[in-house]
Write the structure tokens for this entry.
Amino acid sequence: MSPQRRTALVSVGAAAALVALKLTVGLLTHSLGLISEAAHSGTDLVAALLTFFAVGYAIRPADRGHHYGHGKAEHLAALAEATALVAATGVIVYSAVSRLTGSSSSEVDPTWYAFAVVAIVIAIDLTRAIVSWRAANRYSSAALQSNALHFASDLVGSVAVLVGLSLARAGHPKADPVAALVVAVIVLSAAARLMRRNIDVLMDRAPAEATAAARQAIERNVPGISLRRLRLRQAAGRHFVDVVIGVPPGAAVAQGHAAADEVEDAVRRALPEADVVVHVEPQGGSEAAVRERVQAAALQIPRVREIHNVNVIDVDGRREISLHLKLPGSLSLDEAHEVAEHVEETILQALPDVASVRTHLEPLAEVAEGTRPPASQVESGAASILRIVHEQTGRAPRELRFLDTDGGLVAFLTLGLDPRTELADAHATASAVEERIRAERPEISDVHVHTEP
């Protein structure tokens, strides 16, 4: 049995003994204060049982159905405990108000053994609070911490009952229901604190202090990276940390992995029980990195088939993006425009420093049927193309072939150029050849020019 469960089991035994002792003496002496304390201890008994079983469940390791473990069972138990406290408080308040207003009459009998029982209860409450508080701090257990809080509130309530009995013995019988109301206020206050704290955990509210500690640890100990996102949640005293960092776009995979390791180590030094996951992205400073992020964002959108001609332009310190999108040709213009708007919004979200995005829509080329045309159909066209290529490059093309398609005659041409030719010049030569062929041979519907060294 784990130390946490042993502590919870001791609380179960103590709570059961206190319920029996307070309820018996409260009924014998007609003390509403003691009966209310018995009800309070009854909720503690339920809470201790819940804690006993919840702690046993919460320490189970992660499995196929619970990838983050079972730690939130403790917080569910604490929330159930708070609900039980509120229900018990309603009964206490009703009974106390009835006695104070005279709706019900019952005289308290503050005998010596009632004082003895309260003294014993105070001693037990004090011991339980100290033991549970130390265990909660040692194991960072939310359930044990809620138990310690309850035992401390029990201690205050028991002192209030002692004062009420003392005043009743001195001739002030209404002091006993007043003491019961004091206990009710204590119970409600404890229930509110428990509910707020555990609902925050169950709703994955980011723990502010832990978030600040993790952020400071990363920024102080891992230079050269940009912290793009930091998210935390907690369960059973353990933090789950999700970090996204940016590294220089030229960094190798090993460098990115090393940066991720440094981030994990820094966070674990600040939060020793943390489970840390680090995602590495290229920093968006360079134009190449921006293009890469634009393409990654656009390709997330359904029906986007291809992206090309991505241009990044700096205008007055802000970047503007233009790109060509290829979409299925069967889409209507309205549907294609809707896809384009979605792409633009996604890119703007992925790159907050971009001022605007412009898209140019193109239909995706469908698969076409093609056959080789007879030689008589292409003889004159081939002669013209050979002449044009020789005039532009000073040599014959490496390959020339034709295909007859549904869209007309298509020419495929391969040019051999000097290996030292710059890419821009090679592109200009290919464009010039293509334009001359289209101008001189209009019967050729399309020309594809490929250049190689």
About this structure: The beta strands are 226-235, 238-247, 275-282, 306-315, 318-328, 354-364, 370-371, 399-405, 408-416, 444-452. The CA atoms of residues 310 and 414 lie 26 Å apart. The chain has four domains: 3-202, 208-282, 287-364, 371-452. The two ends are 76 Å apart (CA to CA).
